[in-house]
UniProtKB/TrEMBL annotation:
The chain crosses the membrane at residues 32-53, 60-80, 146-172, 210-227, 233-253. Residues 61-322 form the Fatty acid desaturase domain. Pfam families: FA_desaturase. This is Fatty acid desaturase. Keywords: Membrane, Transmembrane, Transmembrane helix. It comes from the Bacteria. InterPro entries: FA_desaturase_dom. The keyword Cell membrane does not apply. It comes from Alteriqipengyuania halimionae. GO terms for biological process: lipid metabolic process. The keyword Nucleotide-binding does not apply.
Amino acid sequence: MPPHPLHPGAEDNDMLRQAALLTRDLHGPNPLIYWIDCFGSAAIGYAALLGAIASGNAALTVALVLLSISALYRAVLFIHEITHLDHRLLPGFRTAWNVGVGATVLLPSFLYEGIHAVHHSRVHYGTERDPEYLPLAHMRPWTLPLFTLAAVLMPALLLLRFGILGPLSWVIPPLRRLLVERFSSLEVNPAYRRPAPEGAFARRWVAQEAAASVVAIAILATAALGIMPLRAFALYCVVVAGVALLNQTRTLVAHLWENDGGQLSLTDQYRDSTNVPPAFPGALWAPVGLRFHALHHLLPRLPYHALPEAHRRLKATLPAPSAYHEANYRSLTVLLVRLGRATVHRGKDHPVPPEGSQHPC
C-alpha cells in the first residue's frame, strides 16, 4: 500500500472524527433523486433494448445495446444503495426496485442484502469470512482476466438459478440447502457459505425469488416455444452480460485487494479501498457514487448523491498527512495497471511502487 505516517493497523482518528463532523448534514436521502435517477435509468435501458430488438440497422442496434447496458447498469447498481438505506426514509423504494429492475434482470436484492453488511464489518473485511473479498493482488496474473470474463456467463447462470434450479429446490430439500448456501449471493469469495435467511428477510427473499423465477421461466419457455424471437432472447442476454461485465471490471478496482486475510483497522480498510473522483468517465463505469468507494467504506450510511460533496469537504479540510488523501486515484486505468503489476510482482519481497495514489483529485 502507499506509504503513510501511521503504523499499519493504527487509526487516523482525526480523519475519522473530521469525516463524521463535516458530513453530519448530508445523511438524508433525497427521495426525488433516488426515484427519478433509478427508474429514469431503467426506462431508458428498457426502451433502448426494445429499440435494438426492433432495429434492422446493425450500427443502430449496437448503439442501442450499448445505451441499454449503460442505463440498466446504473439502475441495477441501486441494489447497493438498497443494502444501506434506512427504508423508513424511502418507503416503497426497495419493493419498486425489485419489481421494476431486480426481477426483470434476474438480480433481486436478496442476492446482496445481508451479504454486503458482512463486507463492511470491521471484524470480517478482507478475511476469508468476507463474501466480497479475494486477495487478488497476491494471485497469479491470469486470475484477473478470468475473474472479469466470468461475468459473461451471468445470463446463463441466472436463468439456470431462477428458471430451473430455484423452482426445483422447493420440492428437493438438499438442493434448496445447496442453492441457499452457494448460489444465492453476489459474491467474489467462492469459499463463502451463506446462512439460511430468517424473519422478515426470509419472507422478502421468497417473494423476490418467486418474482425472478416467474420472469426466468417466462423467458425460457417463450424462447423454447418460438414465441420470443431468438434475436430478442440473444440481445437480452447480451445486455445482462454487458451489465455484469461492467460491474466486474468496476469491482476489480473498488479495492487494492492487498490484505492477506488479517483483520484491518478502519483506516487500513479505507486505504485498501479506492476513490476515483473525476466525474468523467468515472460516473459511467462506477455510477451511483461507487467511484467514491473508499469514502463509502468510511461513511457507509451516506447516500450516493452526497458523496461528491463529502469528498470535496474532506479533501479541502484534511491536511496532507491524513490517510484520506492516500485512497484517491486518477483513473480506472491507473488502478488496473497497479493491480496487474501487483499480480506480476507477487509477494512481500517484491512490493508494487505506490504510483497512482495521492493525486490532486
